[in-house]
Q: What sequence folds into this?
């Protein structure tokens, strides 16, 4: 009987077995990357041992997630399902959201932005802008509070007082719980105006205490406000921004200005133009740093005196890209090719500057140049 | 099981000649295309050759430059079309001709769904066979390419780089096994729906066409609804993917159930 069906048996066996062999070969090829690790080039090796770096790698034109430590590199293909399910992103904010979704499955439904969430040991709070009357204008703020101890959720909606303008677009930029009062920074706009509004809410009474425009700019001046802040380790651990300050940049008539919101004081101050000519703002906790890449300098800005103090000058600040600030350390990256192939990024240099010590404490690299047709596309997060 | 194997063997042998001809065409056309195009790259290089000049930037050629050509792709498209044609042909030929073979096939003393699964299996085996032949041709074609194109302008490509995801070949042979199972899994669902529609048409003729269209519309609705539910009920993305997989499983099970009922109770010759 076998002889009679030998053709089909042989054909099926060869086909299925060959496909199996092919994918085994593909996996074995990729497994070679496991020997890559964060190599220490200089400084304190312990700093490197604590690093965990996520990123995106291309190998033979296929995309992979990479997770590198001082011990190994773990690599996994980015599948079609990863792309449609959003698992592709290993950026810190997306990872934070995914972690929250795993921990607080019910509460986190429909919540996608880390900037509209606050978390501490007792509460997870979300703020969302919407329209109460189902109209295109935004007029309400919905607060949802998850009590971690009791695992209960309460929510309430508040009207945003409309004074002279109606807002068509809005986003929550920051949520903080300060002395049982919620501070919510919102960016609101319509065709004419963009405003940064701070709403203060009494959580127990579920009442809006105050809503004031911290900053506003008319669109006829071609104004754009972009609120930015660099996330830090504290941000990751608690998945809520506990910084006292929030920086933002405005572009008015094609000229940019740097501002800082003092969330607790509810005021905005502009950083001196002289200081900010080629610089950018870094905020960590209650400290404001200004980094000037053109001269390779890091300053600390004192809010009380409006003066800046030079903390350090270093070539690294000039040469490399600042990626992260946490625990008073600056993490810099530099993407480059190998000597043989300079156009393709196969090496990422890592440098850590300690703000308190005023020096570089670690230098390392991730090098995949020994693998033909490989390329590091980007680093998405450092832990 | 024995009957299933017998039928798969039977189905394989019935289409074998056409399949062999198509594979022969694939091997010949692709080999000739690679040889001709490699030769034209070589001639272009030789005509402009000046000692000491760097040719890599202006004249460099990869294996994929040759295999992205029409002459290389047309046989692949032809085989895909033939296999799509086979989905219909495998059923309709039973009813065609003087002595309708469907009589004998449907009167065989075993579950008629065996016929359905044998046809589905033979189609899958033909598809996998094509993929394997295309992968196996890489060493041959690459040898032709490297033996003709001078080293000065040649940029060598590995098999995996050649099967780049941005090419048709990369779509047919995904670079990771998860994508392979996903894409061919969805393909099996689509084929099961088409088989059901064909069986409906064969059973109820014109009325069956209407029923078939309605069934396709229902399957599309079921699949689209899984996206709408995900959006309306604020499901997490992973939950949405599960819902979509469930909808595909439901479509497949429904196709099998309808086919089972009709093929056993309603089909007419």
A:
């Amino acid at each position: 009987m076998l002889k009679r069906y030998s053709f089909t048996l042989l054909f099926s066996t060869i086909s299925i077995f060959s496909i199996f062999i092919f994918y085994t070969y593909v996996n074995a090829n990729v497994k070679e990357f496991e020997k890559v690790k964060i190599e220490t080039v200089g400084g304190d090796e312990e700093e490197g041992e604590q690093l965990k770096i996520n990123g995106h790698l291309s190998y033979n034109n296929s995309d992979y997630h990479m997770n590198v430590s001082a011990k190994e590199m773990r690599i996994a293909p980015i599948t079609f399902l990863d792309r449609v399910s959003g698992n592709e992103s290993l950026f810190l904010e997306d990872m934070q959201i995914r972690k929250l979704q795993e921990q607080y499955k019910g509460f986190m439904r429909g919540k996608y932005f880390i900037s509209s969430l606050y978390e501490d040991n007792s509460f997870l709070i979300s703020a969302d802008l919407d329209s109460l009357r189902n109209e295109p204008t935004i007029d309400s703020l919905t607060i949802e509070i998850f009590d971690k101890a009791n695992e209960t959720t309460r929510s309430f909606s508040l009207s945003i007082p409309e004074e002279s303008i109606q807002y068509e677009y809005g986003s929550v930029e920051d949520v903080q719980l300060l002395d049982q009062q919620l501070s919510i920074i919102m960016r609101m706009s319509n065709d004419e105006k963009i405003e940064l509004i701070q709403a203060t809410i009494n959580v127990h009474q579920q009442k809006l205490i105050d809503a004031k425009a911290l900053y506003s700019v008319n669109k006829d001046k071609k104004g754009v406000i972009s609120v930015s802040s660099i996330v830090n380790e504290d941000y990751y651990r608690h998945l809520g921004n506990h910084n006292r300050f929030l920086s933002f940049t405005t572009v008015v008539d094609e000229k940019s200005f740097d501002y800082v919101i003092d969330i607790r004081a509810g005021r905005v101050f502009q950083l001196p133009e002289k200081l900010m000519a080629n610089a950018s703002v870094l905020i960590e906790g209650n400290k404001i740093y200004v980094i000037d890449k053109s001269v390779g300098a890091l300053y600390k800005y004192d809010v009380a005196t409006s003066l800046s103090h030079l903390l350090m000058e270093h070539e690294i600040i000039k040469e490399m890209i600042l990626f992260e600030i946490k625990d008073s350390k600056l993490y810099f990256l530099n993407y480059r090719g190998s000597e043989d192939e300079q156009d393709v990024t196969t090496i990422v240099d890592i440098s850590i500057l300690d703000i308190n010590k005023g020096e570089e404490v670690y230098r390392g690299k991730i090098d995949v140049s020994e693998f033909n047709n490989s390329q590091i596309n980007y680093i998405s997060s450092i832990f | 099981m024995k009957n299933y194997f017998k039928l798969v063997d039977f189905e394989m042998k019935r289409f074998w000649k056409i399949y062999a001809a198509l594979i022969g065409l694939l091997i010949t056309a692709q080999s000739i295309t690679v040889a001709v195009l490699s030769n034209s790259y070589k001639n272009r290089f030789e005509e402009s050759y000046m000692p000491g000049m760097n040719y890599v930037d202006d004249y460099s050629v990869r294996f994929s430059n040759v295999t992205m050509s029409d002459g290389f792709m047309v046989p692949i498209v032809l085989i895909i079309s033939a296999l799509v044609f086979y989905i219909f042909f495998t059923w309709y030929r039973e009813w065609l001709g003087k002595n309708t073979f469907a009589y004998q096939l449907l009167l065989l003393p075993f579950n008629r769904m065996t016929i359905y699964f044998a046809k589905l299996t033979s189609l899958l085996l033909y598809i996998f066979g094509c993929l394997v032949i295309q992968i196996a041709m890489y060493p041959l074609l690459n040898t032709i390419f490297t033996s003709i194109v001078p080293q000065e302008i040649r940029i060598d490509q590995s098999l995996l780089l050649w099967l780049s995801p941005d090419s048709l070949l990369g779509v047919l042979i995904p670079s990771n096994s998860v994508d392979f199972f996903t894409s061919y899994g969805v393909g099996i669902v689509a084929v099961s729906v088409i088989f059901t529609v064909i069986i409906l048409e064969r059973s109820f003729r014109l009325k069956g066409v209407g029923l078939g269209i309605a069934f396709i519309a229902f399957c599309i609705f079921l699949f689209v609804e899984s996206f709408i539910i995900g959006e309306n009920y604020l499901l997490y993305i992973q939950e949405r993917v599960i819902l979509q997989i469930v909808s595909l499983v439901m479509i497949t099970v429904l196709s099998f159930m309808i086919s089972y009922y009709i093929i056993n109770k309603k089909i007419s010759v």
